[in-house]
Amino acid sequence: MAPACTPETIERIATLLKDTNLHDLLSPQNVIILKDSATVEQSLKTLASKRILSSPVVAAPDADAKPPGCGCLAPLFAPAPPGAHWPQEKGLAGNHQILGFLDVRDVLSSFLAVSVAAAAAAAAAAGACRKPPDPGLPGVRDVLSSFLAELEGHGNLPKMKMLQKMRLLEEQGSSFATTAIKDLKVFGGDGDFLHTSEAAQTSVLDVIVNGLLNPKERGAHQGKHIVTGTVHRVAIYDNHFRINNIISQTDIIKFIFMNKGELGDLATKTAAELGWASRPVVTLGPDVSAIEAMLLMNQKQISALAVVDGVGKIIGNFSVSEMRTIMAEHFGALALPVGEFLALEHGTEFQGYSHIHEQEVVQSKGHKFITDRIARARPRTPGEEVGQNLILVTPQATMIEILDKIVSHRIHRVYVIDELERPVGVVTCTDVVRLIISLVQPAALPASRPSSAKQLQQLEQQEAEQQQHDQQKDADAMQQ
Description:
Oligomer: single chain
Number of strands: 12
CATH superfamily of the domain at 267-450: CBS-domain
Pfam family, one: CBS
Shape: globular
Mean pLDDT: 76
CATH class of the domain at 267-450: Alpha Beta
InterPro entries: AMPK_gamma/SDS23_families, CBS_dom, CBS_dom_sf
Distance between the termini: 50 Å
Order of helices and strands: HEHEHEHHHEHHEEHEHEEHHHEHEEHH
Protein name: CBS domain-containing protein
Organism: Tetradesmus obliquus (Green alga)
CATH architecture of the domain at 267-450: Roll
CATH topology of the domain at 267-450: CBS-domain
Structural class: alpha/beta
Keywords: CBS domain, Repeat
Largest sheet: 3 strands, mixed
Helix content: 25-40%
Strand content: 5-15%
Radius of gyration: 24 Å
């Protein structure tokens, strides 16, 4: 539901978005473009070297095949016929096609899907399970049962010893590293594409509504997509299929913040008033392995999880951004607990175990020594346990304060916390964009994720009932 703002505020925001051309937000960029023939290992190394999370992918013709030892960046494309557009005229310019965006999450999700399918197939052959799960986006239950089969009954994924997890992930990662991008199971969902001729006539409002929130052209790859509904970026391409610019949700947020004077009374609305302080936040403890965290993000279709201690206080943020420099040989590290994984990523040691233990002791009777010790400790910086500097706000934080934090710290989300530093909400760039559109063009909004704990519980119950129904159906089919 849109917040109550004055008609003057709504008109000023609408005018700003309608009267600003997309080209006004674009600046020269050196866009990295990957070939679909590049391997997972080459692609991850390229992304890591540029410290980026995603890149457009094109299908190169066989004549342009990459000789041994060459990098995976695509060369300049052969010119397409004048006026050629993607995707209406496929196969032009020497069969070059824009396949979509590849991001680190696509790679990791595909790795999980392949691992699950292989393990489940082996289990099925041995009679350990009825049939392999869908080899697309894996479910948590599928993964647990598959890894159980992989270890021949020696415990499931959460109970598996860390060294066992690391060994299994390293073995599978070594084989997976040679997979070509075009063969990934999950790929290409988080990005839209716009021809430069259309971009010249597109307003900021149009690119938000018809690009970021309602993407039309995600590319030609037929694999499964993680992202449904909104996307985080739109690429601008020309008649030669050169992608020279990418506009992201972050760019839109920066633009809105730079024009904060046009926000009117919306600027002073608080997180509580905007409904951002009473939303379900998906959390996990620091002892949960990073691979389980990835599976949970896939299951919930979110890109970040709040890491909390034993009393619910936020101590870290586990997100796709933390995978920015991961490579195939690092997949074994996904077996590490999230707390240690984050600490290593930030060049420190996880400090949370002793702190969490002490917090639990404080709640018991007769431990004045521990209480005094904690009281004498220096003030805690949120996120220090895992080497992060968490940016947090209270329910009283205003819209403009939240935008300031997102832009100045170059982050994608801000957690809303209560007086005990427990997360009670989270504000993402997508949330801000959706809020703005809910004011000026509410009919353009796609369906959103559950906005309350009750809705989330209802959806999870429906998923559980559907899974139970499918299992019963499979069992009945086997008996016939």
